[in-house]
Amino acid sequence: MTAQSIYKSPREINEFLLKIHSKVQRKDFTFYNSRQIAANLLNEITEDILGAEARDMLEHCGLYGYNAEVRYVDLKEGTAGQISLNNTSERSVRINVSSQYKNNGHVLMAILAHEVCHKVLYVNGLYVLAESLNETYVDLATIYMGFGDLILKGYRSR
Q1: Which residues pair with 84 in a beta bridge?
Q2: What pTM, to 2 d.p., does this model score?
Q3: What is the DSSP string of 60-119?
Q4: Angle at which helices 105-123 and 47-60 pack, to 10 degrees?
């Protein structure tokens, strides 16, 4: 993969942000504030806590009534999380999080925010087949949806 294959021009970025804005209606821009993981940073962060956090994130993005199942699993090196993108009519989200981050709440929140934004784009018809392009769009979506601060803290905590 070359830099040219993943580089998006400012015009392409703007066009995608306008697509997100037209499909994902937001009354106002608000940053996401963690309730589940932030309250447990000094304790064990269980899969139940992760699931509750993912549900809160989905609701923050306007996806109400979704069930979130989050599991710690051993993922290949370089993979922090995975989401199962199922039928949009199924109000279910299954996320696997690398067990290597089990004790790092900031990284866990960044992983969840990223994976949740995969679902947001999928449900709103903004998902594309090209994996590298999708990852770029998901990263833009995390910022647009108010998760930018979580992403920065997660990267700083690695």
Answers
A1: 94
A2: 0.89
A3: HTT-TT-EEEEEEE---TT--EEEE---TTS-EEEEEEEGGGTT-HHHHHHHHHHHHHHH
A4: 50
Question: Which tokens in the block code for residue 88?
Answer: 């949009």
- CB–CB of 118/138 below 8 Å? yes
Cβ atoms within 10 Å of 37's Cβ, excluding its own: 19
Instruction: Count Cβ atoms within 10 A of the Cβ of residue 47 and give its class: 0-12 exposed, 13-18 middle, 19 or more buried.
Output: middle
Query: How many whole angstroms separate alpha carbon 154 and alpha carbon 105?
Result: 8
Question: 55-95, pLDDT tens digit by residue?
Answer: 999 999 999 999 999 999 999 998 999 998 876 567 889 99
Least confident range from 85-89, 132-136, 146-150: namely 85-89
Identify the bridge partners of residue 73 per DSSP, sorted by sequence position: 98
Tokens in use for 11? 């015009």
**pLDDT per residue as tens digits for the range 57-68:** 999 999 999 999
